[in-house]
Amino acid sequence: xxxxxxxxxxxxxxxxxxxxxxxxxxxxxxxxxxxxxxxxxxxxxxxxxxxxxxxxxxxxxxxxxxxxxxxxxxxxxxxxxxxxxxxxxxxxxxxxxxxxxxxxxxxxxxxxxxxxxxxxxxxxxxxxxxxxxxxxxxxxxxxxxxxxxxxxxxxxxxxxxxxxxxx
Length: 167
Prior knowledge:
Elements: H1 10-27, E1 59-61, H2 63-66, E2 78-81, E3 84-87, H3 92-95, H4 110-115, H5 138-154, E4 156-161
Parallel strand pairs: 1-4
Antiparallel strand pairs: 2-3, 3-4
């Protein structure tokens, strides 16, 4: 009941040699002979990025300490939703100066995101206590949670927003 291989016919011999060659290529793949490290994408993911992104340290922000990160005063753009601070610098065209969400940069955007409103009236003054969001309806809270999920999957969480007297 053993394996009986008849290599007497040319078709069987060619098939056997092809299988051996394929197995050899899988077990011992060819190694590329690179003379230098590529700096751009051409044919695979073996290239190195041109620079390493800056390291982000998780920290606590107050409304006043978050305000300079608006894209005008700083290169970084941060915004907060329900106490979570996101680094949205990668979305500069949306959140930077002149972007459609630009008024949220450096601020607590919770109420505006919940109500789907980009009006300046949705922003809490940085000298006042944090907005508790107690008057939001359930669908607005769900909408805000949807924005938090979206931002969590797309941007770096770099801190938390706390009351001015908490730091």
